[in-house]
Design a protein that fits this description.
This protein is of the alpha/beta class. It has helices at residues 5-29, 83-92, 113-126, 276-295, 308-313, 323-326, 362-372, 379-384, 409-424, 445-459; strands at residues 32-39, 44-51, 64-71, 96-101, 135-144, 147-157, 174-182, 191-195, 203-205, 210-212, 243-247, 301-305, 340-343, 399-403, 429-433.
Length: 472
């Protein structure tokens, strides 16, 4: 066969494009790795595929912001996008995506899947998950198929003069939340919001003489949150037909620090104060509701709180309207009501801290008077600092309390007093007691089922039509 100049050009053009496509294919495939991961849910190994973003985002320490994506589960997928489309979207946003393929295993469903969520977070916190030692330990997420993430959504501008630390922090940072939601959902689902029990804060680098971002956006710091307490509740919510969100703790300051203007150093050690806390909580709820409407979520929001996150989240349940709390922050005019709350051990009424001695609240017993003056002379001020003050009528949100009686005794005292107040007002309440040991979060399938069913009922989740008992 003879080649004309035209046919020779055509041949070489085809050859060129073949080589180019092969080169691109090899280049693209080099971004992904695969292997086996041992799953507690399936009782064996499952396949994973890890894909790097072409434009990866990293945390302050240079570690990769990572999404562990659970796919081909044995539950109904709420988001209508294809898995490929949502994974590609995550990659385009800069996330490293590690897909765990459950291949429709019959155990990859409600409650059982929580065991793997705990294992994933524990592995990332330990510095080794699917062979990766550089996943961010405070910006990594477990997402269910069909879900996406709106990360670092601003919900309030902090006032540096509330806690006055560090002294170089004079321009307020934005507090943020992450919203995990089904993309293109079949139905509108409710959202559970939690305030982190890991604090984010401004940090001054004395060596460089500047404020740094080292401790901003620490709400998901695994060592102090999900992994530290084997907490799988929020990240398991999608299996129960819900979205979830986690917000920076309202106290934008290390938990053991904070001082009033012209006050003693660390006067705020181990507690937070109003109106700052309630203002931020209410603004967070309004922000979540505003974004949720755009995302196709339902209007119903529940609160899940544990430890300092319970103290903060409890500010949302009461129905008392205080102008200084309602008209500050973002999205003024949108409702800040919540429809249900599950509250673990926390502080709801500071006037109770002297009920008993040596019951775990010594820091508050000593330091609260430094800020608010003696209790007997300033009772009204002390009352206004706690969430119990905001509970006024039966319009308060139905609440489930959970705690262990071998935890610090003041937690049980706080819960009993707030529950009694709600019961007297005929607000629906229930309690989950001694599900574990000490300062911990429910982990067993039976206990998690109680929590999820509570929210499904009051938030009208499409995953349940159960009726939940109250006042028990």
């Amino acid at each position: 066969m003879k080649y004309t100049s035209a046919s020779f050009l055509t041949f070489n053009t085809k050859k060129y494009f073949f080589v180019l496509l092969l080169s691109l294919s090899l280049s693209l495939s080099s971004w992904a790795t695969s292997g086996k991961w041992t799953s507690q849910v399936t009782g064996g190994t499952i396949e994973y595929t890890a894909t790097e973003s072409k434009n990866p985002i990293k945390d302050f320490n240079g570690n990769y912001v990572t999404v562990v994506y659970l796919k081909n589960l044995a539950i109904k997928k709420i988001g209508r996008n294809s898995i490929k489309k949502d994974v590609n979207w995550l990659l385009s946003e800069g996330y490293r995506v590690i897909e765990l393929n459950y291949s429709k295993n019959s155990n990859a469903k409600v409650l059982k899947i929580n065991a793997d969520i705990i294992a994933i977070n524990d592995s990332i916190a330990a510095g080794s998950f699917c062979g990766f030692k550089n996943c961010s330990q405070y910006k990594s997420y477990v997402l269910f198929e069909g879900y996406r993430i709106a990360r670092d959504v601003s919900y309030f501008i902090d006032n540096p003069k509330i806690y006055n630390t560090p002294e170089q922090y004079i321009v307020g940072d934005s507090l943020h939340m992450d919203i995990i939601y089904p993309a293109n959902p079949k139905v509108k689902v409710p959202t559970i919001l939690s305030f982190s029990y890991s604090n984010s804060y401004a940090n001054y680098d004395s060596n460089k003489g500047i404020l740094t971002d080292a401790y901003k956006d620490q709400r998901l710091n695994l060592a102090y949150s999900f992994a530290g307490f084997n907490d799988s509740f929020l990240e398991g919510a999608p299996a129960n037909g819900m979205a979830w969100a986690i917000a920076d703790h309202p106290k934008y300051c290390p938990w053991g620090k904070g001082k009033p203007v012209n006050g003693a150093n660390d006067a705020y050690k181990s507690y937070e104060a109003n109106p700052d806390t309630a203002q931020k909580v209410k603004s967070a709820i309004r922000t979540l509701r505003a974004f949720g409407n755009k995302m196709g979520l339902s209007d119903k929001i529940g609160i899940f709180g544990f430890s300092r996150g319970s103290t903060a989240g409890s500010m949302a349940i009461g129905d008392r309207k205080v102008a200084s709390l309602e008209n500050t922050g973002f999205h003024i005019g949108i409702s800040d009501d919540v429809q249900a709350a599950a509250l673990g051990p926390g502080v709801f009424d500071y006037t109770l801290i002297y009920n008993k001695s040596n019951d775990g609240d010594k820091n508050m017993e000593l330091r609260c008077p430094w800020v608010w003056g003696p209790l007997e002379e300033n009772r009204a001020l002390w009352e206004s600092m706690g969430s119990s003050f905001l509970v006024e009528t039966a319009a308060t949100a139905p609440t489930l309390f959970f705690y262990n009686t071998d935890d610090d005794a003041y937690y049980e005292d706080q819960i009993i007093n707030l529950k009694n107040k709600l019961d007297q007002l005929a607000v629906p309440t229930t309690a989950l007691i001694n599900y574990g040991k000490g300062h911990s979060i429910p982990q067993t399938e039976a206990d998690l089922n109680i929590l999820y069913d509570f929210f499904k009922n009051y938030l009208n989740s499409p995953a349940s039509n159960k009726t939940y008992p109250t006042n028990k």
